Every structure is written in C-alpha cells, then in structure tokens.
C-alpha cells in the first residue's frame, strides 16, 4: 500500500505543475467542505448512528487529510477469530496486509500472503504459532496485486506447492512493468488459478465466493465466506480494496472504486453478510477495539467481529458515501 501512496504523492507533485485537476487534489485537504460534501457527511452520519460513529468520522471527516501513513503499533501476534478463521496481522498498523487462514479437512486456505520480506518471519512463523503446518497451505487467494498482499506468494508456491489465485486483471497487473504504473513485483508468483466473479473457490468443506471490485487495482476481488462461532454459522465479508485515500485515485479509478463498493454491497446483502473483516484493518473499522474485546471474551460473550447483517450493510454504504465525498471534495 505504501509504495503506491508515495508514488501517487510524487506524481501528484509533478502533476500539480501541469494540470488543474491535480492542483485541485493538492488543495483539497485544507479547504472547508462545500455544502454538497457536507450533505454527504450528514448522510453518512445518519446511516452510521452511534454504532459506526467513529468509523464515519474517520472515513468522511478525518480522511480528508489522511495520506495512508499511520503510527506504528505493536504486532498483536496471530490469533483465532472464529472456529475456522485465524488472522496473522503482523504490523498491520503501518499498512501491511493482514493474512487470514482458513483450515479445512483438505488443507489450509490463505487470504493474501503479506510482503515478501514478511513471508518467512511473520506469515510462515504465524501459521506454525497457530498450530498448523505450512506444508498444508493449498490455496492462497490474493485480494489484489499490491506487494503487501502478493509479495509472499512466490515462496509459498515454490516451497509448498500452494495454488495462487488472482483475478485475470490482477495477474496481468502484477506482470506489468513498473513503468506502466504497477508497483514493482520483484518475484511475482507463476501464473496459476484465476478468480472469477461469483464462481466459488472450494477446498474441503469450505467455499469462498469472490466478487469483482476493481478500483484500488484493476482486478481487486472482495471475498464472502461462512465461518462458525460456538456452533453458529456467520457470513464474512472482506472488501478487498480498503477505503479510499484521496491522493491514490484518479477520477476514473475513484468512480470505479465507489461503483465497486455498491456492487459488493449488493452481494453482501444477498448473502446476508454479518461479519466485517478487512485486509488493512485499523481505525476505520475499529479493529483494535474488536481485537481487545475478542481477547477478553468469556464463554457466552458475543464475538465482537459479528456486527449483524444490517450493520454490515450500513458499513458498506458509509464507505461508499464517504469515498464519493472524498472524490467530490477535491473537485471543488
Ligand atoms: Zn493495496
């Protein structure tokens, strides 16, 4: 994520000399909000209520100056989220992608693979800490082709024979030369499985449904899958493209991003998603608080990551309204 931001800021500086839209982008954070943007913030507040109030404040208001760089916090270490879902967060707070592990009777499914530099000390070590054998990693689904998600995939493919899954668009994206605008991928995985919208990816008894949500990259995918908690089944939604950071997007990719949020919302509504997770969790989805609540959880307590179908839907709508506000804000 970081590489892209620095590149975006660099090109923004150059672009500011050349074109007025770029100048507008550069000015945007210091200008007071227009009546139109204020109306969008009010709408997001109304959707948020008290449940998502801190998230709304971050996504719609604080994000106007947020450039993607956050304060480093300690790695909380790998942990169990649900009976069949584990997280290896690493130093998630500085923009590193979180790796999720889903154990099945036929081996392990992994979501994302972390930075290349982290695959050995954080990801593989984390899999072992959780009590699993990394040799059982069978499928690694990459939500999008940035280095903090796909960087570790090559090693997992070569050492353990894991199948790597990306959308067709992001397989092309990771092989595109850096000069064309893609992040440098020093050692991309060999071309392997392709994720297609709505076509389930299965291993053992587990099924993951990919949804095509381009914008953050040309072929980002969101994922929907069931998990179990104390015998009860819940449905997880992971929108694979994070939230909008105004400086990272052109008008075109920004519009695509907002459209993808609405598209993912239709899927998550249909599949009754009630659990929110993210590949870059943080302040925008209250991850640290939920993690602390999970660690303090006693038998019979609710799982803090279960927000309920209505609240999940509200969260998707807030993301879309605030992303649109970010894009409109810089046009004024
Ligand atoms: Zn990214």
Short description:
This protein is an alpha/beta fold and 332 residues long. The protein contains eleven helices and twelve strands. It is 39% helix and 18% strand.
What this model shows, in words?
The protein is an alpha/beta fold. It has one domain (2-7, 31-331): Metallo-beta-lactamase, Chain A (4-Layer Sandwich). It contains 11 helices and 12 strands. The protein has helices spanning 2-18, 20-27, 35-48, 53-61, 119-129, 147-150, 153-160, 168-175, 251-270, 287-295, 309-331; strands at residues 79-82, 85-88, 99-104, 107-111, 137-141, 163-167, 193-195, 201-203, 206-212, 221-229, 232-238, 275-277. The strands form 2 sheets. A 7-stranded mixed sheet has the order 1-2-3-4-5-6-7. Strands 8-9-10-11-12 form a 5-stranded mixed sheet. Helix 9 links the parallel strand 11 and strand 12. The longest helix is centred in the last third of the chain and has 23 residues, at 309-331. It starts with a helix and ends with a helix. It binds zinc ion (ZN). Residues 1, 144, 146, 216 line the site of zinc ion.
């Amino acid at each position: 994520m970081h590489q892209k931001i620095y590149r975006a800021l660099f090109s923004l500086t150059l672009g500011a000399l050349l074109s007025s839209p770029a100048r507008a982008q550069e000015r945007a954070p210091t200008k007071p909000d227009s009546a139109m943007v204020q109306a969008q913030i009010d709408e997001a507040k109304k959707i948020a209520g008290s449940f998502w109030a801190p998230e709304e404040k971050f996504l719609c208001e604080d994000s106007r100056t947020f450039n993607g760089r956050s304060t480093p916090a300690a790695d909380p270490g790998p942990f169990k989220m649900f009976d069949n879902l584990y997280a290896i967060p690493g130093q998630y707070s500085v923009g590193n992608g979180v790796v999720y592990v889903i154990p099945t009777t036929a081996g392990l499914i992994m979501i994302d693979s972390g930075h290349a530099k982290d695959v050995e000390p954080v990801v593989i070590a984390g899999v072992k800490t959780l009590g699993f054998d990394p040799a059982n990693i069978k499928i690694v689904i990459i939500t999008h082709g940035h280095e903090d998600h796909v960087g570790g995939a090559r090693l997992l493919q070569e050492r353990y024979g894991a199948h790597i899954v990306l959308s067709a668009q992001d397989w092309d994206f990771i092989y595109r030369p850096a000069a064309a605008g893609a992040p440098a991928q020093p050692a991309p995985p060999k071309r392997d499985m392709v994720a297609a919208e709505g076509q389930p990816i299965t291993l053992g008894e587990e099924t993951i449904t990919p949804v095509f949500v381009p914008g953050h990259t040309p072929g980002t995918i969101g994922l929907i899958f069931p998990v179990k908690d104390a015998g009860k089944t819940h449905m997880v939604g992971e929108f694979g493209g994070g939230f909008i950071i105004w400086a990272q997007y052109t008008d075109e990719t920004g519009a695509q991003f907002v459209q993808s949020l609405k598209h993912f919302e239709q899927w998550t509504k249909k599949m009754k998603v009630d659990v929110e997770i993210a590949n870059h969790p943080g302040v925008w989805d209250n991850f640290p608080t939920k993690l602390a609540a999970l660690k303090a959880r006693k038998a019979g307590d609710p799982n803090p990551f279960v927000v309920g179908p209505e609240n999940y839907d509200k969260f998707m709508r807030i993301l879309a309204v605030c992303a649109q506000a970010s894009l409109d804000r810089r046009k004024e």
